[in-house]
């Protein structure tokens, strides 16, 4: 398709104190940490320019326009009506997760996660003295068959390849030391969009065992064209009453460095606890740029996001077509995120071994799947949110060792 916005631009990021580019051991093609090599949407850059031109950067409040931007976006894009009172500003989803773990647990408690899952969940649990309780997702590898399935067939297969193990989940939730489930919706790294029925079942089990759900929904706006995610709290009153939802414009609009996010908490008693936690940890006050970029993203960034989703989807097809020639690598069909999950067990190497080989011999840097839990050890995670030329060059280099 023709694009109004230039996602093909090869912007130089090295030497800008970029985590992705300047902390990658010199890799020529860092396709690892989850940020994008695309310039932010023009309305966001304009909002920053306007704010900078004012020239004064003192303490900031949260204006009504910030609340309105979130409420309008979730109503318009995700058919979920949030209320102003539910929303609390936070400097990031990760700070929100860590503050929530500290507030709702004591050292020695269990926190459940469905693995493989975002590696920082582990840090937030361990750093607060709690026990990581891994409940591995059911991986139906046999459904991948002898060849890679097309991502275009995701309606049929993506919900079957990875499923929630409800029996093991309930066993973990029933432990009296279990206080919290950190849930990833959509799921990073496997690219799953959870169905209404799955979300309702998770909520039912957690309510039964008095376990709070912290739903990380930061990837919710990066879904394949025609695919929509379902907010955990939108499913029913049970889910709404037991949950904290962490949301942000940062992943979808590539503004993670702006340190801006929110938590949405319908339950007033739970909201009071988390409000106190965020303020105690001093992560509830915005910098001078966090508010204007959020308002601009949600109020004016939709056309840019729609093109981005198509561009990422086309990048997925390129990787799928490339891997179809290498049956030892199995691409997991993806519905969401710009991260691809690749089973490398057929190569005779685990994810860590292949990651090191790729980086050393090709300069292509992917993330070893073991970072996301024991069930990810035979996988690699690949970030494809980059200009197409960069992706294609990286794939050409990968051919050297396949």
Termini separation: 31 Å
> Mean pLDDT score, rounded?
96
Number-wise, the strands total 15
CATH topology of the largest domain: Aspartate Aminotransferase, domain 2
Spatial arrangement of strands, main beta sheet: 2-10-9-8-7-3-4
Query: What is the general shape?
Result: globular
Residue share in helices?
A: 25-40%
CATH architecture verdict of the largest domain: 3-Layer(aba) Sandwich
Instruction: Name the beta content range.
Output: 5-15%
Q: Counting H and I runs of at least 4 residues, what is the number of helices? A: 15
CATH class of the largest domain: Alpha Beta
Please provide the ordered H/E string of secondary-structure elements: HEHHEHEHEEHEHEHEHEHEHHHEEHEEEH
Biggest sheet architecture: 7 strands, mixed
CATH superfamily of the largest domain: Type I PLP-dependent aspartate aminotransferase-like (Major domain)
Radius of gyration: 21 Å
Backbone structural class: alpha/beta
- Domain unit count: 2
Spans of at least 5 consecutive residues with low confidence: 147-157
Provide a descriptive summary of the structure in words.
This protein has 402 residues and is of the alpha/beta class. The protein folds into 2 domains: 19-42 and 302-401, Aspartate Aminotransferase, domain 1; 64-300, Type I PLP-dependent aspartate aminotransferase-like (Major domain) (Aspartate Aminotransferase, domain 2, 3-Layer(aba) Sandwich), CATH 3.40.640. The protein is built from 15 helices and 15 strands. It has helices at residues 19-22, 42-54, 64-78, 93-104, 120-126, 154-161, 166-174, 196-208, 237-242, 250-253, 268-280, 290-300, 302-323, 351-362, 388-398, and strands at residues 29-30, 87-90, 110-115, 131-136, 138-139, 162-163, 178-184, 212-216, 243-247, 261-264, 330-331, 339-343, 364-365, 367-368, 379-383. β11 (330-331) and β12 (339-343) form a beta hairpin. α2 (42-54) runs antiparallel to α12 (290-300), α4 packs parallel to α5 and α4 packs across α11. It is globular and about 55 Å long. Residues 147-157 have low confidence and may be disordered.
